[in-house]
Design goal:
The protein is of the alpha/beta class. It has 2 domains: 210 residues, Spore Coat Polysaccharide Biosynthesis Protein SpsA, Chain A (Alpha-Beta Complex), CATH 3.90.550.10; 76 residues, no CATH class. It is built from 14 helices and 9 strands. Strands 1, 2, 3, 4, 5, 6, 7, 8 and 9 form a 9-stranded mixed sheet that branches. Helix 7 packs across helix 13. The longest helix is centred in the C-terminal third of the chain and has 32 residues. It starts with 16 loop residues before the first helix and ends in a 7-residue tail after the last helix.
Protein backbone atom coordinates (compact mmCIF):
# COMPACT_ATOMS: atom_id res chain seq x y z
CA UNK A 1 0.00 0.00 0.00
CA UNK A 2 1.27 3.44 -0.89
CA UNK A 3 2.54 5.50 2.01
CA UNK A 4 3.40 9.17 1.71
CA UNK A 5 6.30 10.49 3.74
CA UNK A 6 6.95 14.14 4.34
CA UNK A 7 10.05 15.85 5.63
CA UNK A 8 9.34 19.50 6.36
CA UNK A 9 12.70 19.71 8.07
CA UNK A 10 15.31 17.58 9.78
CA UNK A 11 14.29 18.88 13.19
CA UNK A 12 13.45 15.36 14.40
CA UNK A 13 16.55 13.85 12.83
CA UNK A 14 19.39 13.23 15.28
CA UNK A 15 22.08 15.89 14.91
CA UNK A 16 24.36 14.59 17.63
CA UNK A 17 27.35 12.99 15.93
CA UNK A 18 27.75 10.24 18.52
CA UNK A 19 24.07 9.31 18.19
CA UNK A 20 24.41 9.15 14.43
CA UNK A 21 27.31 6.75 14.82
CA UNK A 22 25.21 4.55 17.10
CA UNK A 23 22.57 4.26 14.38
CA UNK A 24 25.08 2.54 12.16
CA UNK A 25 27.94 3.37 9.83
CA UNK A 26 27.31 4.97 6.47
CA UNK A 27 29.48 4.57 3.39
CA UNK A 28 29.36 6.02 -0.12
CA UNK A 29 30.64 4.32 -3.26
CA UNK A 30 31.33 6.48 -6.31
CA UNK A 31 32.66 4.82 -9.49
CA UNK A 32 34.73 7.33 -11.48
CA UNK A 33 36.47 7.74 -14.80
CA UNK A 34 38.10 11.00 -15.91
CA UNK A 35 36.16 12.75 -13.13
CA UNK A 36 38.57 15.52 -12.12
CA UNK A 37 36.16 18.21 -13.31
CA UNK A 38 33.31 16.67 -11.34
CA UNK A 39 34.88 16.06 -7.94
CA UNK A 40 34.89 19.70 -6.84
CA UNK A 41 31.09 19.70 -7.24
CA UNK A 42 30.34 16.14 -6.17
CA UNK A 43 32.44 15.63 -3.05
CA UNK A 44 32.21 18.78 -0.85
CA UNK A 45 28.54 18.37 0.23
CA UNK A 46 29.26 14.75 1.09
CA UNK A 47 32.43 15.54 3.02
CA UNK A 48 30.58 18.28 4.92
CA UNK A 49 27.68 16.01 5.88
CA UNK A 50 27.07 15.68 9.65
CA UNK A 51 26.69 11.94 9.06
CA UNK A 52 30.46 11.75 8.48
CA UNK A 53 30.25 8.95 5.90
CA UNK A 54 33.16 6.94 4.58
CA UNK A 55 33.74 7.83 0.95
CA UNK A 56 35.17 5.31 -1.48
CA UNK A 57 36.00 6.15 -5.07
CA UNK A 58 36.49 3.21 -7.42
CA UNK A 59 38.38 4.67 -10.34
CA UNK A 60 38.74 3.00 -13.73
CA UNK A 61 42.37 4.08 -14.26
CA UNK A 62 41.71 7.74 -15.04
CA UNK A 63 44.51 9.82 -16.57
CA UNK A 64 43.20 13.30 -15.69
CA UNK A 65 44.26 13.48 -12.04
CA UNK A 66 41.03 12.08 -10.57
CA UNK A 67 42.84 9.76 -8.17
CA UNK A 68 45.32 12.31 -6.82
CA UNK A 69 42.58 14.91 -6.38
CA UNK A 70 40.34 12.49 -4.49
CA UNK A 71 43.15 11.42 -2.21
CA UNK A 72 44.09 15.02 -1.51
CA UNK A 73 40.54 15.51 -0.23
CA UNK A 74 40.91 12.58 2.14
CA UNK A 75 38.74 10.16 0.16
CA UNK A 76 39.54 6.46 0.03
CA UNK A 77 40.43 5.33 -3.51
CA UNK A 78 40.47 1.96 -5.20
CA UNK A 79 41.86 1.78 -8.74
CA UNK A 80 40.72 -0.91 -11.19
CA UNK A 81 41.59 -1.55 -14.86
CA UNK A 82 39.26 0.35 -17.16
CA UNK A 83 38.10 -2.86 -18.82
CA UNK A 84 37.10 -4.36 -15.46
CA UNK A 85 34.31 -1.86 -14.78
CA UNK A 86 30.83 -3.35 -14.56
CA UNK A 87 27.80 -1.45 -13.32
CA UNK A 88 26.85 -4.17 -10.86
CA UNK A 89 30.09 -5.97 -10.01
CA UNK A 90 32.10 -2.80 -9.41
CA UNK A 91 29.53 -1.41 -7.00
CA UNK A 92 29.35 -4.77 -5.27
CA UNK A 93 33.11 -4.70 -4.80
CA UNK A 94 32.82 -1.28 -3.15
CA UNK A 95 29.98 -2.41 -0.91
CA UNK A 96 31.94 -5.39 0.35
CA UNK A 97 35.02 -3.25 0.89
CA UNK A 98 33.23 -0.66 3.04
CA UNK A 99 31.08 -3.10 5.06
CA UNK A 100 29.03 -0.23 6.46
CA UNK A 101 25.51 -0.64 7.85
CA UNK A 102 24.13 1.58 5.10
CA UNK A 103 25.78 1.93 1.70
CA UNK A 104 25.01 4.80 -0.66
CA UNK A 105 25.66 4.52 -4.38
CA UNK A 106 26.36 7.70 -6.32
CA UNK A 107 27.83 8.74 -9.65
CA UNK A 108 30.55 11.30 -10.27
CA UNK A 109 28.19 13.73 -12.00
CA UNK A 110 25.50 13.72 -9.30
CA UNK A 111 25.86 16.87 -7.19
CA UNK A 112 24.07 17.06 -3.85
CA UNK A 113 22.29 20.40 -3.48
CA UNK A 114 23.29 20.67 0.18
CA UNK A 115 25.18 18.89 2.95
CA UNK A 116 21.80 17.87 4.44
CA UNK A 117 20.97 15.70 1.41
CA UNK A 118 22.37 12.52 2.95
CA UNK A 119 20.36 13.03 6.12
CA UNK A 120 17.12 13.19 4.19
CA UNK A 121 18.12 10.22 2.04
CA UNK A 122 18.86 7.74 4.84
CA UNK A 123 16.06 8.85 7.17
CA UNK A 124 13.46 6.30 5.91
CA UNK A 125 16.03 3.51 6.34
CA UNK A 126 17.04 4.59 9.84
CA UNK A 127 13.37 4.80 10.81
CA UNK A 128 12.68 1.31 9.47
CA UNK A 129 10.23 2.51 6.83
CA UNK A 130 12.23 1.18 3.89
CA UNK A 131 15.41 -0.71 3.09
CA UNK A 132 16.18 1.28 -0.06
CA UNK A 133 15.88 5.03 -0.57
CA UNK A 134 16.72 7.09 -3.63
CA UNK A 135 17.00 10.80 -4.18
CA UNK A 136 15.18 13.23 -6.41
CA UNK A 137 17.25 14.17 -9.44
CA UNK A 138 17.03 17.71 -10.73
CA UNK A 139 18.43 18.63 -14.15
CA UNK A 140 21.78 20.36 -14.25
CA UNK A 141 21.63 24.08 -14.96
CA UNK A 142 21.56 24.55 -18.72
CA UNK A 143 20.23 21.04 -19.43
CA UNK A 144 18.32 20.55 -22.67
CA UNK A 145 14.54 20.27 -22.70
CA UNK A 146 14.89 16.51 -23.24
CA UNK A 147 17.27 16.00 -20.30
CA UNK A 148 15.12 18.19 -18.04
CA UNK A 149 11.90 16.42 -19.01
CA UNK A 150 13.34 13.00 -18.18
CA UNK A 151 14.14 14.18 -14.67
CA UNK A 152 10.74 15.80 -14.11
CA UNK A 153 8.94 12.70 -15.41
CA UNK A 154 10.79 10.16 -13.26
CA UNK A 155 11.36 12.25 -10.13
CA UNK A 156 8.14 13.95 -8.94
CA UNK A 157 8.06 16.57 -6.16
CA UNK A 158 6.30 14.34 -3.61
CA UNK A 159 7.95 11.58 -1.57
CA UNK A 160 6.39 8.13 -1.29
CA UNK A 161 7.12 4.55 -0.31
CA UNK A 162 6.45 1.57 -2.58
CA UNK A 163 6.11 -2.15 -1.96
CA UNK A 164 5.33 -5.08 -4.22
CA UNK A 165 1.66 -4.62 -3.32
CA UNK A 166 1.75 -1.32 -5.23
CA UNK A 167 2.62 -2.94 -8.57
CA UNK A 168 -0.96 -2.54 -9.80
CA UNK A 169 -0.65 1.21 -9.17
CA UNK A 170 2.89 1.95 -10.32
CA UNK A 171 3.46 -0.77 -12.93
CA UNK A 172 7.12 -1.16 -13.92
CA UNK A 173 7.89 2.04 -11.99
CA UNK A 174 7.40 -0.06 -8.84
CA UNK A 175 10.98 -1.29 -9.24
CA UNK A 176 12.46 2.04 -10.29
CA UNK A 177 15.56 3.27 -8.52
CA UNK A 178 18.72 5.05 -9.57
CA UNK A 179 22.21 4.40 -8.29
CA UNK A 180 23.13 7.94 -9.24
CA UNK A 181 22.03 8.53 -5.65
CA UNK A 182 20.50 5.67 -3.67
CA UNK A 183 20.96 4.27 -0.16
CA UNK A 184 20.65 0.61 0.82
CA UNK A 185 20.48 -1.31 4.06
CA UNK A 186 23.45 -3.62 3.73
CA UNK A 187 21.89 -6.59 5.50
CA UNK A 188 19.00 -6.48 3.02
CA UNK A 189 21.44 -6.48 0.11
CA UNK A 190 23.18 -9.49 1.64
CA UNK A 191 19.89 -11.39 1.57
CA UNK A 192 19.58 -11.03 -2.21
CA UNK A 193 23.24 -11.59 -3.00
CA UNK A 194 24.15 -7.94 -3.49
CA UNK A 195 24.38 -6.24 -6.86
CA UNK A 196 24.44 -8.63 -9.82
CA UNK A 197 27.11 -8.47 -12.50
CA UNK A 198 25.12 -6.70 -15.22
CA UNK A 199 25.98 -4.17 -17.89
CA UNK A 200 23.16 -1.85 -16.88
CA UNK A 201 20.23 -1.64 -14.46
CA UNK A 202 21.72 -3.26 -11.37
CA UNK A 203 19.63 -0.90 -9.22
CA UNK A 204 16.32 -1.99 -10.75
CA UNK A 205 17.19 -5.68 -10.49
CA UNK A 206 18.17 -5.40 -6.82
CA UNK A 207 15.05 -3.41 -5.91
CA UNK A 208 12.86 -6.01 -7.60
CA UNK A 209 14.55 -8.77 -5.59
CA UNK A 210 14.18 -6.83 -2.35
CA UNK A 211 10.50 -6.08 -2.94
CA UNK A 212 9.89 -9.77 -3.56
CA UNK A 213 11.22 -10.33 -0.04
CA UNK A 214 8.66 -7.81 1.23
CA UNK A 215 11.11 -4.94 1.70
CA UNK A 216 10.09 -1.42 0.64
CA UNK A 217 11.69 1.33 -1.41
CA UNK A 218 11.41 5.01 -0.49
CA UNK A 219 11.53 7.84 -2.98
CA UNK A 220 12.77 10.85 -1.02
CA UNK A 221 12.00 14.04 -2.92
CA UNK A 222 13.60 16.17 -0.20
CA UNK A 223 16.97 14.52 -0.84
CA UNK A 224 18.02 16.32 -4.01
CA UNK A 225 20.93 16.03 -6.39
CA UNK A 226 21.56 17.67 -9.74
CA UNK A 227 22.09 14.98 -12.32
CA UNK A 228 21.15 14.86 -15.99
CA UNK A 229 22.61 13.97 -19.37
CA UNK A 230 22.23 15.40 -22.86
CA UNK A 231 22.73 12.15 -24.74
CA UNK A 232 23.32 11.96 -28.47
CA UNK A 233 21.10 9.64 -30.52
CA UNK A 234 23.94 7.12 -30.63
CA UNK A 235 24.29 7.23 -26.86
CA UNK A 236 20.52 6.83 -26.41
CA UNK A 237 20.62 3.78 -28.67
CA UNK A 238 23.48 2.16 -26.76
CA UNK A 239 21.97 2.96 -23.35
CA UNK A 240 18.61 1.46 -24.28
CA UNK A 241 20.26 -1.55 -25.88
CA UNK A 242 21.82 -2.37 -22.50
CA UNK A 243 18.53 -1.63 -20.77
CA UNK A 244 16.66 -4.00 -23.07
CA UNK A 245 19.27 -6.73 -22.52
CA UNK A 246 19.03 -6.50 -18.73
CA UNK A 247 15.25 -6.30 -18.61
CA UNK A 248 14.98 -9.36 -20.83
CA UNK A 249 17.56 -11.21 -18.73
CA UNK A 250 15.55 -10.56 -15.57
CA UNK A 251 12.12 -10.67 -17.19
CA UNK A 252 10.73 -13.15 -14.70
CA UNK A 253 11.33 -10.99 -11.65
CA UNK A 254 10.45 -7.71 -13.39
CA UNK A 255 7.25 -9.01 -14.97
CA UNK A 256 5.37 -8.37 -11.72
CA UNK A 257 5.26 -4.73 -12.79
CA UNK A 258 3.42 -5.52 -16.01
CA UNK A 259 4.29 -4.28 -19.48
CA UNK A 260 7.17 -1.83 -19.77
CA UNK A 261 5.76 -0.52 -23.06
CA UNK A 262 2.87 1.20 -21.24
CA UNK A 263 5.14 3.53 -19.27
CA UNK A 264 7.14 4.13 -22.43
CA UNK A 265 4.03 5.28 -24.26
CA UNK A 266 3.04 7.56 -21.40
CA UNK A 267 6.54 9.05 -21.42
CA UNK A 268 6.45 9.80 -25.15
CA UNK A 269 2.94 11.24 -24.99
CA UNK A 270 3.87 13.48 -22.06
CA UNK A 271 7.06 14.60 -23.79
CA UNK A 272 5.24 15.51 -27.00
CA UNK A 273 2.63 17.43 -25.01
CA UNK A 274 5.38 19.33 -23.19
CA UNK A 275 7.18 20.14 -26.44
CA UNK A 276 3.97 21.21 -28.18
CA UNK A 277 3.39 23.73 -25.41
CA UNK A 278 6.97 24.97 -24.96
CA UNK A 279 9.27 23.98 -27.85
CA UNK A 280 7.33 22.75 -30.90
CA UNK A 281 10.43 23.03 -33.07
CA UNK A 282 11.96 20.15 -31.07
CA UNK A 283 9.19 17.68 -31.93
CA UNK A 284 10.94 16.19 -35.02
CA UNK A 285 14.02 15.45 -32.91
CA UNK A 286 11.77 13.87 -30.27
CA UNK A 287 10.61 11.34 -32.87
CA UNK A 288 14.21 10.56 -33.83
CA UNK A 289 15.17 10.16 -30.19
CA UNK A 290 12.20 7.88 -29.53
CA UNK A 291 13.12 5.75 -32.54
CA UNK A 292 16.72 5.43 -31.32
CA UNK A 293 15.55 4.39 -27.85
CA UNK A 294 12.94 1.93 -29.10
CA UNK A 295 15.27 0.33 -31.65
CA UNK A 296 18.08 -0.01 -29.12
CA UNK A 297 15.76 -1.49 -26.52
CA UNK A 298 14.27 -4.08 -28.86
CA UNK A 299 17.65 -5.05 -30.28
CA UNK A 300 18.98 -5.44 -26.74
CA UNK A 301 16.18 -7.86 -25.95
CA UNK A 302 16.77 -9.72 -29.20
CA UNK A 303 20.50 -9.89 -28.49
CA UNK A 304 19.81 -11.55 -25.15
CA UNK A 305 17.46 -14.06 -26.77
CA UNK A 306 20.10 -14.96 -29.34
CA UNK A 307 22.81 -15.30 -26.69
CA UNK A 308 20.56 -17.54 -24.59
CA UNK A 309 19.98 -19.84 -27.56
CA UNK A 310 23.72 -20.36 -27.70
CA UNK A 311 23.98 -20.74 -23.92
CA UNK A 312 21.21 -23.32 -23.81
CA UNK A 313 22.99 -25.38 -26.44
CA UNK A 314 26.02 -25.33 -24.13
CA UNK A 315 23.92 -26.24 -21.08
CA UNK A 316 24.08 -22.80 -19.37
CA UNK A 317 21.12 -20.97 -17.90
CA UNK A 318 19.90 -17.40 -17.93
CA UNK A 319 20.24 -15.06 -14.91
CA UNK A 320 16.53 -15.58 -14.21
CA UNK A 321 16.68 -19.36 -14.16
Amino acid sequence: MKQDIFFDSLENFPKDHAHLQSLGSIGIVIPTFQAANHLSHCLPPLLDSPLNPRLLIIDSSSTDGTVSLARSLGVEVMVIPQGEFNHGATREKGRKYLKTSIVIMMTQDAYAVSKEMLGYLVKPILEGKASVAYARQLPHHGASVFAAFARHFNYPPTSHIRSLADASTYGVYTFFCSNSCAAYLNTALDEVGGFPSVRFGEDTVVVAKLLERLYRVAYVAEAQVRHSHDYTLRQEFRRHFEMGWTRRAYQKILSRGGSDSLRGRIYVQSLLKELWETSPGQIPYAFLQTLAKWTGYRLGQASFNISMCGQERKGNLSPDS
